Amino acid sequence: MASSSTMLSVFVLFVILLNPSFIVSKAEESSNSSSTVFTAQARNICPFQSLYNFGDSISDVGNLIREGPAGARSYAARLPYGETTFRRPTGRCSNGLLMIDYIATALRLPLLNPYLNPSAAVDHGVNFAVAGSTALDSSFFRERNLHVPSSNSPLSTQLNWFSNHLSRVCHNPIECANRLERALVFVGEIGGNDYNYGFFQGKSMGEIRTYVPQVVQAITNAVREVIHAGAVRIVVPGNFPIGCIPIYLTAFQTSDPRAYDDMRCLAGLNEFARYHNDYLQSALAELRIEFPNAVILYGDYYRAFESIIHRASSLGFDAANAAKACCGVGGAYNFDSNRMCGSPGVPVCPNPARRIHWDGVHLTQAAYMHMAQWLLADLLPKVQC
Fold first, then answer.
1. Mean pLDDT of all residues in 365-379
2. For 240, left (φ over 0), alpha (ψ -120 to 50), or beta?
3. Which domains does the chain have, with CATH numbers?
4. pTM of the predicted model, to two decimals?
5. Are strands 233-237 and 50-54 parallel, antiparallel or unpaired?
6. Could you tell me if 296 and 282 are in contact, meaning their C-beta atoms sit under 8 angstroms apart?
7. Span 231-238, mean pLDDT?
């Protein structure tokens, strides 16, 4: 059981997470500012000096829009993305903050900067995530006649960026190991797009299930690589209940009530997400045996999102529209793949804080905040200093 000090710390962090303006203002200050409102108890939770993140659009804070012309033209590069907190697009695929932003602030660190912003500060860590990225290299998909965007920066590319970053900030491997020993590393969420490209290009569930061992192998290999570089505390998130996401609910909508679970989500797709998550957790258990001195934690995005669905009304969400996109148009889920959020004439709901889903693919700032709360309560007591 967590100590009373730890539980008090989690409560204090929750208070901070409820105030997005505080998070943005703290990002403008030094991470060791004496004006922080965190209590001494909160400081006692693993005083991380840096945070590193790999992933896709769930945690991209601006890499895609800097990656080339295609990224610069992406929806995340224009309003209404970013409108709630930043008042401008930042490359985040939401109306404001992401889970990784809330987690950085809970650890008393500034918001992470994207790796592809070469002038940004990196002493407190770097975000390597790129929207649309896959765990597997693009060659895997070409061999299966699947199209992936030319902007795909798979996990192998992000690991190369990580290596390049370390070569710039460290003089030798020992110095890098010392730096990473005081860091928290998120490897993911990644892998969701590997399946998305299959599902939305007509591959069968049976075929896509065969991708899972290779996706998980790519993720665990990445964990090995960051551990070999010196990381000792790693969080590896699982997949969302994809059957609850408007893009899936729209594409695979059916009149058969047996296809839906108690969350009114597509049961078969959620079962697939659990299959991936179970496979990943088994692989992480083996990694813990391989690396007994490392703390390797599973980030349960599935249960964190599920908790929001079940508590939607008490969290202030519009339960009647819990499955509808805030920024979108058309159909039962306010989503049309031909008129995505950011397209001309596509409206935004009056109060995004009352919605769980932002654009039919990603969540709102409010939903990410509550997911971050759930994750912090689950993870912080397990992070050993």
1. 95
2. beta
3. 50-382 (3.40.50.1110)
4. 0.90
5. unpaired
6. no
7. 97
Catalytic residues: 57, 359, 362
Rama region for 131: left / alpha / beta (φ>0; ψ in -120 to 50; rest) = beta
Residue with structure tokens 């108690």?
A: 262
The two tokens of residue 375 are 């994750």
- Strand-pair category, 125-127 with 295-299: unpaired
Phi, psi of 261 (to 5 degrees): -95, -170
Nearest Cα neighbor of 53 from 123, 113, 132 is 113
What is the rounded distance in angstroms from the CA atom of residue 364 to the CA atom of residue 199? 24
Alpha carbons within 13 angstroms on the beta-carbon side of residue 300 total: 15
First to last CA, the chain: 16
> Looking at residue 27, what is its pLDDT?
46
Q: In what order do the strands lie in the sheet containing 295-299?
A: 125-127, 50-54, 183-187, 233-237, 295-299
Question: Does residue 23 surpass a pLDDT of 70?
Answer: no
Tokens of residue 119, six digits: 């002038």
CB atoms within 10 A of CB 47: 11
Q: Which residue has the tokens 């813990």?
A: 288
Determine the pLDDT at residue 382: 82
pLDDT in the model for residue 70: 86
Q: Which of 296, 295, 315 is nearest to 305 (CA)?
A: 315
Characterize the bridge pairing of strands 125-127 and 183-187: unpaired
Burial class (CB in 10 A: 0-12, 13-18, 19+), 224: middle
C-alpha triplet 154, 285, 205: angle, nearest 5°: 55
Do residues 12 and 38 make contact, with C-beta atoms less than 8 angstroms apart? Answer: yes
Query: Which one-letter amino acid corresponds to residue 331?
Result: G
Residue 110 DSSP code: P
Residue 222 banded pLDDT, cuts 50, 70, 90: very high
